[in-house]
Amino acid sequence: MLEEDLILQQLLNEDDILTEKQKKIIVAAIESFSEKGFAATSTSEIAKKAGVAEGTIFRHYKTKKDLLLSIVAPMMAKLLAPFILKDINKVLDRQFETYEDFLRAMVENRREFLVKNLPIIKIMLQEIPFQPELREQFKEHVAKDTFRRFATLVEHYQAKGQLIEMPSMSAVRLSASAIFGFLLARYLIVPEIEWDDETETERTIQFVMHGLSRKA
Amino acid sequence: MLEEDLILQQLLNEDDILTEKQKKIIVAAIESFSEKGFAATSTSEIAKKAGVAEGTIFRHYKTKKDLLLSIVAPMMAKLLAPFILKDINKVLDRQFETYEDFLRAMVENRREFLVKNLPIIKIMLQEIPFQPELREQFKEHVAKDTFRRFATLVEHYQAKGQLIEMPSMSAVRLSASAIFGFLLARYLIVPEIEWDDETETERTIQFVMHGLSRKA
Amino acid sequence: MLEEDLILQQLLNEDDILTEKQKKIIVAAIESFSEKGFAATSTSEIAKKAGVAEGTIFRHYKTKKDLLLSIVAPMMAKLLAPFILKDINKVLDRQFETYEDFLRAMVENRREFLVKNLPIIKIMLQEIPFQPELREQFKEHVAKDTFRRFATLVEHYQAKGQLIEMPSMSAVRLSASAIFGFLLARYLIVPEIEWDDETETERTIQFVMHGLSRKA
Amino acid sequence: MLEEDLILQQLLNEDDILTEKQKKIIVAAIESFSEKGFAATSTSEIAKKAGVAEGTIFRHYKTKKDLLLSIVAPMMAKLLAPFILKDINKVLDRQFETYEDFLRAMVENRREFLVKNLPIIKIMLQEIPFQPELREQFKEHVAKDTFRRFATLVEHYQAKGQLIEMPSMSAVRLSASAIFGFLLARYLIVPEIEWDDETETERTIQFVMHGLSRKA
DNA sequence: GATGAATGAGCTTTCATTCAT
DNA sequence: GATGAATGAAAGCTCATTCAT
User: How many other CB atoms are found less than 10 A from the CB of residue C194?
Assistant: First the structure.
């Protein structure tokens, strides 16, 4: 995975040149928001952790919510990353002979993404239910864009006879449930137990393939 | 499903006799917490919505967090419900001939539970990451008790040769991912689209069975 | 003049029963607003002067501006007072044989009103240009109601042949200018010099009468 | 009226050469102060409106109050303008045969002055009660200088037998009340109604003359 | 001379909690 | 048990002012 997957890295180098102080504010905000939640984190706490005056936060972000959005919004777009393929169908055959190959690549890709951006992802998951702006972006980028591309992929392999007939929506849901169920358990719910990552990944992929592939 | 699955019902009839006011406080708190989150809900708002004086809340619940815990804690225990079987193995054969039967029963059972308790479940999911007491209870009741009983069940069907060999933890994870992936999508993420509940439920169960059952 | 002309008195006894603390807040606010202006007065300063916690202010007045309006608004209505006469024309002859009598009564009346309510009047004059709500009330009660009744009076004396023909608006403006020019100079602009009140009042009235009365 | 009566013009050409930026600051400050009041206007707002950096304001004016004073102070001196007559008594006969002529000239003169400087005058009237420096200047230039010269004029016409005997202070007050009552109503209180300027001006002057002149 | 990031005191307002009635 | 006035700490945010560039 390229460094560009590190959202934090992107936030800090972003657009124009950010002040040192601005960067510290972002880092501090991510840490606090992810530890205590957005509403329970005070701006004075962020300022103290960042080593800046409280006013400095508001010079760069009009409101506390602005600060939140500036952190979480870029994340949304990045969730699309593994599906951004120009002329998706033509490219597919060369890239991934089988749905299994695709799944394997995606799990690996999303796993790295998740690991590197865990705090921001926690913030995102927590705040989507309460911040209409975020819900909007989520629906746009994930529920629509990402889902649609995933579905196109599934249909492609169905057409090739690799996958059983089933509404692509259902196939996507079942695939995504298995993958994200794995990643969530692994990194968010019970990260403290010992995981044999390779085995569990392969097991998850095989599980999906058994459920979706046409028996040869 | 029995009425006793309605957590709210239980909360309101609980223990001894609650005042009318107390009941109104709980109902109001559930509504507000689930809509705006715990930290973003003020006690004065709850008081207003419940039609009681601010002081009345604190007469019954020492702190705001006490109020939260009094709502969410009973939920935890109830998540165990479908697994509470005395002498589990002996009972199983008679109750559910196959793992498939068990899955079908559980999905239906949890679905009703989810639908009836949606707001409280939302609160629970939101607050577990931030409230140590809740995390503790969750680990105890769900990650340990519920998981352990689920695992015992899986091992039972493995022993009978119905399910393939695989660490029961993995089998539980894959089963649970599929089921909760379905229920989450259905009731929390995209409840607004039209769902053919029966078909999708069956599809989900078949998906799990394909992935886990020994090919006859 | 009756005690009821004391706006402060009315504010404090108003409507229902006000807390001791509420009364102190009003008294303190009037003092500070009139000394330093609304925008330059902080709520913490008012709280300190009133001997209450800052939160107490906001328990009774939703915002700082609410506090201002609650003080100034009642003043507006009271400016109408000397003109509130039922069936104004019929009553007039018996009450005031001549316009001069009326003027004399009104000057005396408004003088007492002014003296007793000086701080609130200062606040009102200062804030009308900046508070749209107040401007609205002012236009309604003063520029419209008060002016219209004053004009009716003038027309009455014109009809009796006591006053020269002239648009009543002009006659009112000239009368009011003289009276308020006197009262402003006397009590707001140069209150520090020694005034022979009786003589100056009479001089002002004679000045108006010379300008407006039909030469006998 | 000469251009020199335009205070803004004077402010901008003042002293030496002002930067373009400085001029913009003054124009912006006048607009904001007159619209929202001094205390309710922020320097950042002025900077934005002027199109300069916040720091630039403080390069030219040590404090926000300095900026206010630099705008209002020159106004004070200018209020004297129509009375600045060298060897006042000797000049008078040639300039104004009668008090009526003088009044007429002055009303016209002050009217133009008022119209051209309305925003600055509004600021001045608003801030005099709260800024000791301004009150001092006002007392010096207006309440003393201007008043004294006005009084001298009145005494001149009394000595010539044109005006009735009366303390000159009272005569000045009555004259000034009528004139400023007119101008205030015309340009500040109810500028929105239609005014027949010529008629009302003449009416005001005749009103004063009736009240003050010796009946021939 | 001009900038605008940075400051920190102070602003208005909210909040969980207390307590006399 | 219930009230709601009162609290004061802390919240989010604004402000005049400074200063390195």
Answer: 5
